[in-house]
Design brief:
With 164 residues, the protein is mainly alpha-helical. Helix content is 63%, strand content 11%. It has a single domain (17-138), classed as Winged helix-like DNA-binding domain superfamily/Winged helix DNA-binding domain (Arc Repressor Mutant, subunit A, Orthogonal Bundle), CATH 1.10.10.10. It has seven helices and three strands, in the order H-H-E-H-H-E-E-H-H-H. The chain has a three-stranded antiparallel beta sheet. It is globular, with a radius of gyration of 18 Å. Mean pLDDT is 91; it is low at 160-164.
Length: 164
């Protein structure tokens, strides 16, 4: 058995910084959306995914892949959004067994109302903390990390299912 490659102090800073930064940004954005718009970050991500899809609709399986959520987790999320009138389910016309999640006009209006504040929070929690000269490097590193860790079976992730 080979000896593990322990993290040196700089590598440990990268690892722990990544973990804490991602958790803190998510928590900040989630709390802000709840307070300002009554939406969780996950609710907002569902609405965004549907708004960016053709006809503002996606098969539940595609939406699940887009959001990196299990079918069960997504189903519970859609139930809550459906009760609020922000999304609805429809049978898939090409496949009677499939279901589509559809963004309602009320859901789109909620998204449009929440977007400016959320954008400001994204800038304040992340984007504006990265110097302009660093942004290309940070974007490239994050894209490389995502690509190396993408599920080879689905090859989708945030934004990919809706656009492919």
């Amino acid at each position: 058995m080979t000896e593990p490659r322990w993290l040196d102090p700089l590598e440990m800073r990268i690892w722990r910084g990544f973990l804490e930064a991602s958790l803190r940004v998510d928590q900040r954005l989630d709390a802000s959306l709840k307070e300002a718009a009554g939406l969780t970050l996950e609710d907002y991500e569902v609405l965004v995914a549907l708004s960016e899809s053709e006809g503002r609709r996606l098969r539940m399986s595609e939406l699940s892949a887009w959001l990196l959520h299990s079918q069960s987790r997504l189903s519970h999320r859609i139930d809550r959004l459906e009760r609020r009138g922000l999304v609805r389910r429809e049978k898939c016309p090409e496949d009677g067994r499939g279901l589509l999640a559809v963004l309602t006009d009320d859901g789109f209006a909620e998204l449009v109302a929440a977007a400016p504040g959320h954008l400001g929070d994204v800038r304040g929690a992340l984007i504006d903390l990265i110097e302009p000269a660093e942004r290309e490097v940070v974007a490239n590193v994050l894209e490389r990390i995502v690509a190396a860790n993408r599920d080879p079976d689905t090859q989708t992730g945030i934004g990919q299912a809706a656009r492919s």
